[in-house]
C-alpha cells in the first residue's frame, strides 16, 4: 500500500504539471481578471467588459484563420494587408450599398487567400515566403485603391460597428459565431480532419490519398476571408477606412494568440478554445498595462516575453 | 521543415545520378546557372532599360544616392544571408536597425566610439539571445525572432519616450563624418559595406565556420554526426545578424545625423526578399553572399525606377516588389525542383 501511494505521488504531480501547461492560457486569463478586479478601479463593469470584448473581436477573427493555417503546418503573414485591402474595397464600393461592399471586400480577401494557397499547394513555395509576398503586395494594392484615410458614413455600417443585440455588441456576436463555426469545422468535418492530418505529416497525408492541394488552398482562402471580415468589422467600428495603418502588426497578434493558446507551430493540432483565450489574454495584458499608466512600449516587451514563455511551455508538452 | 526535407532530397539526387546521368547533369547545370545568375541578368536588364528610358538615371547624383541607400539594407541582408543559409530566419532585423540608429544617435554625444559600440553591444546581445533560444532551447527561429522584433521595438519606444524624442548627431562630430564623407567620390558607408561583403564572402566560402553554416543548413542531423558544432554555429549566425542590423542602423543614423524612430518597419521583409532574390534557398544549405548584394541592388533599382516614373507613388512600389518576390520564388522553386528530380 505504502509503496503504491509513493509511486502514485510523482505521477499525480506530473499530471498536474501537464494540466497547468495544457490549460495555462485559461489560468493566465483568470489571474489577469483577478488581479484587475482587485487592483484596477472600474474594471468590473458592464461598460468595461463591453469595451474589452469589442476590441478583442477583430484580433480573434483573424486568429481563427491563423489557427487553421498553423494547424496545417503553415502560417499566414498576409492577414494584416488583407484587412487593409478589405477596408479600401469597402470605401470604393460603399456607393452600391453596404452589403455589396462587404461582399466585394470578403471576395477580395478570398482572392488573396487563393493566391497564397496556390503558391503553397501547387508550386510548393514555403508558406512564410508566399504570404510574405502577398503581405507586401497586398498593402500596396490597398494603398493604390485608396491612397488615404476616408470617412465611412453609412447607417448600415454604423449599426454593424456600434449596434448590439440584447445588449451584446454585434462585433462580439459575429466573433463568437465564427469561433464556434471554426471549432465545429476542425472537430467534426472531414475538411477539419484532413487539415490536421496534413499538418501532422504532409507526405503521410499524400500517401493516404488525401486531397492535400485542395485542403491547403481552402485553408488559405478561409484565412483570407476571415481577415477580410475582421477588416470590415474594424472599418465599421472606426467609421473610417485607413489602409495605411489598419491591420499593421496584426499577423503578430494573431500568431501570438494562436501560439499562446496551445496550438503547436509544428501543425497537426488546432485549439480554438485556447486561441480565444489567447486573444483575450493579450487584450487583457495590454489593457492592464495601459490602465496602470505603463507606457505602450511595455506592452510590446510583455507580449514578447509571453510569446517566448508560451512556446517554451508548448515545447515541454510536446516532449512528453 | 528542413529536417523532413533533407532525406527526401538526398534520395532524389541519388536516383537522378543513377538513372539519367547525362541529361540530368546538363539540366542541373542550366538550372543552377539560372538560380545563381538570374538576379544578375535581371539587374543588368533593369539598368539598361532604366538608363535608356530616363536621362536622370545614370547621373552621378542618382547613382550615388542609390548606392548609399542600398548600403544600409545590404549590411542587414549580409547578416540575413548567413541566417538563411543555416535554414533559419531573422525577423528582428528591422527593429534592431531602428534601435541601433537611435542608440547610436544618443551615444554620439559621448564620442564616436560609444556611438558605434553601444548599438553593436545591444543588438549583438539580442541576436545572441535569439541564437541561444533557437539553438539551445530549440524554439522555432521564426517565433523567437518575432518576439525579439517586439522586444527591440519596445526598448526603442521606451528609450525615446514613446517615440516622441529624436536624438540628433552633432554634424561636426567624427561620427557624422563617418556617415556623410566621401572617399574618391563614393560615400564612406558604401566603402564600409563593400569591405564587409568581401569579408562575409571569404568567411562563408573559405572558412571552417562557413563550411559549418552550409552543413547545418543542408542537413542538421548529418552535420551533427560529422562533428560540426551545430548549436555554436547557429548562435553565431544570429549574433552576426544582430550585429549587422545594429551597425547598419548606426551608419544610417550617421548619414541622417539623427536617430529616426520610425525607420526599419518592413526592413526584415526587404532583407529576406533581397537574399531570396539573390539565389539563396530559404530551405537552407545553399546560397552566396554576392547574390544578396545583387538582390539589394535590384530592389533599389526597381524602387528608383518607380520613383522616376513619378506619377506612380510608393504604393505601386510595394505591389511591384511583392509581385517580383513571388515571381522569383516561384522560379526558384521550379529550378530547384528540376535540379533535384528531372
TrEMBL record, chain A:
**What InterPro entries does this protein map onto?**
ABC_transp_permease
Domain of life of the organism encoding this protein: Bacteria
Keywords annotated in UniProt: Cell membrane, Membrane, Transmembrane, Transmembrane helix
Molecular-function annotations in GO: transmembrane transporter activity
Q: How does it sit in the membrane?
A: Multi-pass membrane protein
Please give an example of a GO cellular component term from this record: plasma membrane
| Pfam families the record matches | BPD_transp_2
Give the UniProt subcellular location, in the record's own words: Cell membrane
Q: Where are the transmembrane segments?
A: 23-41, 53-70, 90-112, 119-146, 166-186, 215-234, 246-265
Q: Record's PANTHER family?
A: ABC TRANSPORTER PERMEASE PROTEIN YPHD-RELATED-RELATED, GALACTOFURANOSE TRANSPORTER PERMEASE PROTEIN YTFT
Query: What is the name listed in the Swiss-Prot or TrEMBL entry for this protein?
Result: ATPase
Instruction: Give the species.
Output: Streptomyces lunaelactis
TrEMBL record, chain B:
Q: Which CDD domains match?
A: TM_PBP1_transp_AraH_like
* A Pfam family this chain is assigned to: BPD_transp_2
**Keyword Ion transport listed:** no
The cellular location(s) given in this protein's UniProt record come to: Cell membrane
Q: Where is this region: Disordered?
A: 1-22
Q: Where are the transmembrane segments?
A: 39-59, 71-104, 110-132, 139-159, 183-204, 235-255, 275-299, 319-336
Name by which UniProt lists this protein: ATPase
Q: Which species expresses this protein natively?
A: Streptomyces lunaelactis
